[in-house]
Request: fold
Amino acid sequence: MSRYLYYPGCSMDGSGRAYGESLTAVCEHLGLTLAEIDDWNCCGATEYVGVSLSPAYALIARNLAIASKSQTEREPLVAACSACYLNLAKADSYMKERPLLNERVNVALDAGGLHYDPGSVEIRHLLEVIMNDVGLDKVRASVVKPLAGLRVAPYLGCMLPRPDPDHRWKNHERPDDLDRLLEALGADVVDFPLKTECCGGHMTQIAPKVGLELIKRLVDEAEHHLADMMVTVCPMCQINIDAYQGEMNALFHTKHKMPIVFFTQLMGVAFGLDPKKMGIGRELTNARLALKKIGQVPVAAAAEVTPAHRPRPDKRALPMPRMAASDEALAGEVPAGVAPAGEVPAGVAPAGEARQ
Reply:
């Protein structure tokens, strides 16, 4: 199977833009065709299910009904956002198990000329597709710039490996799928014990101190294991850890600067794709200082351009990061005097040598 239906979800054109751009390029590189379903709608994230069950699952199931109509050969529906994947998988599973919910959802769908038979669409996460359909052998064969010398903490978050209604994950508490993928890219993967712990979700809005404490716990642990960056599969986890480190540092009097990027971004870098097109530089906590360890950026240049955390203008607002002009330059071409990607700059120890 090389063709999949694709549900992008709301974040891929917003806070998760780097994820959307990098996964598109990486999938094309690996020969995977992602056919975006037409007229999809928001999955409801985490809030709507807590407000009204039947309308919430009708909202989610509308996407499944559209996907079902779009199938030509029973192609699976792939989601890259963990919240989207979980909501789609739960809606399908609960509609199978609960006849009354199934009936109510389809009554709602019928108003729009749609119908969904639970079980007719297979829902999968992009990470699982790459691991099980593409395989690590093909991933390794695609690596032209191994991530040697880069210490990464794999962070799945709490929504991907559980509750796992389709039984796709072998170990719900200590899954090693992301670890093995990053190792195949040549990275030095640290043993990160909090890989399935919650990032706080929307607690940063509901109870800010609790949310920031959960973020601090993750970043503390990553730094304890000497990780250069965290790597995730979830847009919510990425934006929480990235955008709120400034407030976290202010509250707890810490000085954390832990970058967090999407796994597809590092896949693209290892495959030799343009880091700019992988969204490197869009993150608020700059990743280029860490990427110097694989010869991407020299120490001096990275130190000069690493920006401070920017406070949000309104604490009541959701985080909507905006890049300053200096950050746009980071996402652009390699500046003059910087060694091309893959080469070791003068004065910088080659990847794999002792840490400075």
Observations:
- The beta strands are 3-7, 33-36, 77-79, 123-125, 151-155, 188-189, 229-232, 260-262.
